[in-house]
What does this fold into?
Amino acid sequence: MIVVMKQGATKSQIANVTARIEQWGCRVHLSEGEERTIIGVIGNGRPLDRGPIERMTGVERTVPILRPFKLASREFHPRDTVVSVNGVKVGDQQMVVMAGPCAVESRDQLLETARAIEDAGAQVLRGGAFKPRTSPYSFQGLGEKGLRLLAEAREETGLPVVTEVMEPQLVPLVTTYADILQVGARNMQNYALLHAVGEAQRPVLLKRGMMSTVEELLMAAEYILSHGNDRVILCERGIRTFEQYTRNTLDISAVPLLKQLSHLPVVVDPSHATGKWELVEPVSRAAVAAGADGLIIEVHPHPEKALSDGAQSLKPARFAALMRGLRPVAEAVGRTL
Amino acid sequence: MIVVMKQGATKSQIANVTARIEQWGCRVHLSEGEERTIIGVIGNGRPLDRGPIERMTGVERTVPILRPFKLASREFHPRDTVVSVNGVKVGDQQMVVMAGPCAVESRDQLLETARAIEDAGAQVLRGGAFKPRTSPYSFQGLGEKGLRLLAEAREETGLPVVTEVMEPQLVPLVTTYADILQVGARNMQNYALLHAVGEAQRPVLLKRGMMSTVEELLMAAEYILSHGNDRVILCERGIRTFEQYTRNTLDISAVPLLKQLSHLPVVVDPSHATGKWELVEPVSRAAVAAGADGLIIEVHPHPEKALSDGAQSLKPARFAALMRGLRPVAEAVGRTL
Amino acid sequence: MIVVMKQGATKSQIANVTARIEQWGCRVHLSEGEERTIIGVIGNGRPLDRGPIERMTGVERTVPILRPFKLASREFHPRDTVVSVNGVKVGDQQMVVMAGPCAVESRDQLLETARAIEDAGAQVLRGGAFKPRTSPYSFQGLGEKGLRLLAEAREETGLPVVTEVMEPQLVPLVTTYADILQVGARNMQNYALLHAVGEAQRPVLLKRGMMSTVEELLMAAEYILSHGNDRVILCERGIRTFEQYTRNTLDISAVPLLKQLSHLPVVVDPSHATGKWELVEPVSRAAVAAGADGLIIEVHPHPEKALSDGAQSLKPARFAALMRGLRPVAEAVGRTL
Amino acid sequence: MIVVMKQGATKSQIANVTARIEQWGCRVHLSEGEERTIIGVIGNGRPLDRGPIERMTGVERTVPILRPFKLASREFHPRDTVVSVNGVKVGDQQMVVMAGPCAVESRDQLLETARAIEDAGAQVLRGGAFKPRTSPYSFQGLGEKGLRLLAEAREETGLPVVTEVMEPQLVPLVTTYADILQVGARNMQNYALLHAVGEAQRPVLLKRGMMSTVEELLMAAEYILSHGNDRVILCERGIRTFEQYTRNTLDISAVPLLKQLSHLPVVVDPSHATGKWELVEPVSRAAVAAGADGLIIEVHPHPEKALSDGAQSLKPARFAALMRGLRPVAEAVGRTL
It folds into this structure.
C-alpha cells in the first residue's frame, strides 16, 4: 500500500500515519516530493485494510499495490486448477460444454434436451429448478420437483448436473441432487450463500455479477475458497452497459485476464451475455478462441414455448451444428472438444 | 404489449401469434405497414409475459406498453404512502433523517453517536450489525451483539433503529431488535430475502442495487408488497458508472422520477453514493431540494478509527452543521426538518 | 508518480527504470517490499508522462500522484474564477440562469422566448444555430441565419447570447455573433475545436461529454486554458449509464467535486440531463442546492412544435414558476438569483 | 412508429395526434385498450421524426419500429459490401490485418515496422500522424511530416496506408497521402468531419465511439454514406464501462450484430480495446472467430520507447507469432488470412 498525504500535511500528521502502520508490524518508506509526501508501506504478508489509514487526518488517499485476493490468485497458486465432476474435468486440455434449458419445465422437455445435448457432445446438463426472476408474477421454477427431474436425467444419460442455488438454507437440498452448485449473477455478492457453498462438498460455478468487476468476481471466489472449497469454476456471462441491442455486453477480454490473474477454470455463458439465440454461435466461437475452458449454453427443444428466456435458447439441431462448428476452433487454439 | 413481426412474416405466422394471444383472453389489433406488421395486444387486466410471444417464429420483438409493476405504482395507488415507525412518519411533510455509524463497533461508539445525532435532530438511528463486505478478510460486523447494542441505544434515546438483514433466516432475529429492516444494495434482487421481509411485520428500507434500474427497484418493491408488507421505503444510494472519483454516481433524477412512478417514500443515502465525507453535505442538500422524503447518513465519532467506510462518515459536529444547513433548504421546498 | 515493479523484477530492470527517471531530472526513492519493489518519483515541477515508464521491462504499472491538470486546478489557482460576459458574472455570489430554445427556429419563436425568459429573470439567452444531430435526416439548425436572429434578440433584450460552435473553422463566424461559445458534449474531446476556442476572445461554455470523467472534463478545460483563454465555464449535463428512464444520468456529485478540484465556475443543464420537462424543475433545485453557479435550461413557447428536443423544453409560464421556486433554494444556500 | 397515449388521454388529444400524422401522408391505426390508447403509424417510406409527436399533449411516449438507418442497413442492401483499397479487399473471404505503430515517430521506426508487418502477412499499414491526446502536454503527432513518412513506407512496401484525420479542413491534405481515412472514436459524432470524409474519394475506417451504441455507429456511417461515399469500414474498438482492469471493454457481440444489421465490413481493434499487449493475441483470435473481416493492431519495434500507447503495442516478433496463430482460427471459421 502507498499512502498519499495531502498537500501541506504536517509533520505530526505524517508521524501519526507512520506510527499506525508500524503498529501493524509493517515498515515504512518516506518519500518527500515538492508537492506531496508519499508513504510506502512494506507489508507483513497479510492483506492490509486501507480504510483506517484513509480516514486519518492529512491523508489524501491510499493506493493498493498487491491484489486483494490471494487464494484465487495465480501468484499464490501458479498451476491451473482442474475441477473434476464425476469424471468430467473442467480446466483441462479438453473443453467442457454444459447445456440444457434455462428452466426445468417437465420430464419430457428435460429428457429430450438431455439426450440431444449428449448426442451433440455436451458433457454437463444444466437446468434451473429455482429461478431468480425480476417479476414476482413470472414463473419461479419447479423447485425440488425440478431437482428430481435433473437427477433422473443424470441417471438416464450419465451427464453430471449443474443447477442454481439461491438461498443458503437450500444448499443441503440442492447438494443432494446436483453435481455442481451454481451461484447466479444476482447472488455473486450474497455472502451468506458464498459461505454456504464454501462449506458444501460440491464444485461451484460462480457467475460474475452483471455489474461486478473482475476483481470483485475473484474476491467472491476468495470467499468460497476461504471456506475450504477449492473447486470453483468462474463464469463470465456479460456485464451491464449502456448498449441495449444485446441483453448484456460479454466482456471477452475477461477470459484471458482471469486466466492470467487466477488459476481457476473459466467458462463463458453466451446465452445470457447476448440474450439472442442468433448471436450464441459466433460468440461461443469467440469464447473458445479467447481461451475459455468451457461454455454453458441454453438449449430448449421448443424455445417458443419456454417458460423463461426462450429468446436466447437454441433448438437441439442448431446446438449440434454449433458443436460441430466449435471443434475446429478449439483445435485451432490447441484444445479438444 | 405490441408485437412487431419481422419483415416478410407470413400470414400463418401472424395467425399463430394472434391465436396465442387470444388464448390468454386478450384481444388483438392488426396494423399492416409496408415493411412490418404490428400486432397490438389489448390486455385482460393482468401483467402479460412477453417471453412466450417473443420466441414465436416470425416475431422480431415485443414492446411493453404498461409498466410491469402494479402494487408499487402511483397509477394503482395515487396517494402518497406514509410509513409510520414508532411515531416517526416517513413520507410525510416532515423530512426524516436517519443517521449513525456504518457498523456498530462498541457500546461507547454507538451511544455517543446516538446521543449526538438525536441532539442534532435526526429521528432514526442507523447502524450495521451484519455487514456485507467485498473481502472475506474485512470486519463482518458484531452480529447479534450489535443488534443488542442498537436496542440499548433505542432504549436510551427513544430513536427507532434501522439495520441491515442479509439472510432470510436471520429475518426473525433482526425483527426482534430492529424497527426498520434494511435490504442492502447487493441484496436488492435476493428474492428469498425479499420474500422473507415481505412476510415480516416491519417496515423495510429497500436500497437500490448499484446495477439496478429504477424499474428493477420498483419490481423489487413489488415483491415485498406482493407478500403483504406495504410499508416499503425506497432508497437511492448511487449507481455504478465509469466515473471513479466518487464511489458511485448518485442518480438525483431518480428521486422525482420515483415519486412520479410510485406512491412509496424515497430516501437518499449521500454517504454511500459519494464515498467522501466532504461531498455528503452538498449532496444532502441536493437530495432535499429534489424532493426526497429523507436521508440516511453515516456519522461516526472518530471516523479515522472506524472499522468500515470511515472515509464517508461525518463527525458529530459536522453532522450537526449539516442539519442546520438543511433546514432552510427543506423550507425552501415546502418541507420541515 | 509511483512505479510498481513486477514480482521478481531484476536489479538491472530496476536500475534501468531509475536511470530513465533521473534522465528527466527527477529523483527516485526505492522501497523494496517482500513481494514488489516500488519506485517513488519525485518530480521536477512539470507533469510527467507515465507511458514511457509503463512500457519498460519489469514494470507492472504506474500510479499517478498529482492530478494531470494544472491551469484548471484549484491548487494552482485557489480563488474562484468569475467569468464576466457583458456585465453578467458567472461564478459570483449571484447565480446565473441561461435559457432559451434548443434550436433557433424562427424570429417569432426566438423573440417570444427571449422576452419571456428575461421577464422571468434569466440573464443569458441560449439557442442553437448549428445543431449536432444523430441522424443526417434530422433538422440541422438554421446556421448563420440563426446566429443573426440571436444577435437581434440580444439587441432587443440586452441578454448576452450563448450558442454552440461545432467546427474550428466556424469559430470566427460564431464569435462575430455570440457572447459565449458553447462546446457541446459530443465535441468535448474535439481537440482542434478546443484549440480554436482557446484562441478566441470569448468565454467558453464547455459541456462534459456524456461518457467523460470529471478528470477528462478538466483536461479539456486545460486545453482551452493552455491556449490562452481563461474564461471557461464548466457544464455538467448528465452522463450515459445503463439507466434508460432518463436520457442521461445527472452526476450531481460532480458539482461540488468540480468546485473542489477547480476554480472554474460550474453550471448544470437539467434539460439534457433528464430529457423530460417534468423532471427539470426538481433537478434544477437540486443543482442549486449542490452549489452550482448557474443553470442552462431549455424553454420553448410551443414545445410540441419544436424541431428538436421539445420533450425536455419548458413552456415560458412553467419556466417562470421554476424561477420563482428556485429563489428560496438559492437563498437557503447563501446565493441570490 | 407507435404512439402510446397517456392514461386518460382525451378524444380530442387523440384526434390531434391522428391529424398531425395524417398531415405527413401517413396512415393511422387506433387500438383502444382499457388503460391506454395506442396509435400505430403506417409510414410513407421515409424515416419519421418522433420528436414532434412525442411533445403533443396527451402523448406518453413513442416507440420506433423501423431502424433509423437505411443506407447502412442490410435490409436495404442485402449483399456484403467489399471495400477495395489498392487491390486489398476488406469484407471479402480473405481477412485483412492492418498493423503499425500508434504514432509515426521517425523514418526508422516506421520503415522497420512496415517491413516487419509485411513479412508477417499484414496487408495495410497503420500509423498516426495527427494524434488525439487527452492532455495538451502529450505528444500530438508529427503532422504532415508523419504523412510523408507513411507515403514513403507505402512506396517501399506496397502496403496501402490508413491514418487518422481529426479535422474537416485537413481532409484534403490527409487524402493526398492516405489510402484509408480513419475517423477516430472521439470523432465518431463530429458531424462536420463525417460530412468531409463523406465527400472525399477515399475509403473510411469509422471507429465506434467509446460511448456510442451500435445504432449510433450505424447512424454515423449513414452520415458518410448519405454524402455519397459508400466505402465505409466499421471498427469495434471497445466501449467504456465500469471495468477498469482493461482500458475499454471490447463488445465482441457487436461483431456478429453489425454483420446482421449492416452490409458494411467490420474490423476489430484489440489494442485499444484492451490497452494491454498481453491480451491482444487472445482477443484477436476471438474477433476472428466471431466473424470480423479484419483487425487493426498496434505494432512497434520498441514499445518501451513509444511516444504514445506503447503499453498496448506488440513487438514485431510477437506480432508475427500472433499472425501464425490466427491463421488456423480463420480457417476454422471458413476464412483465409
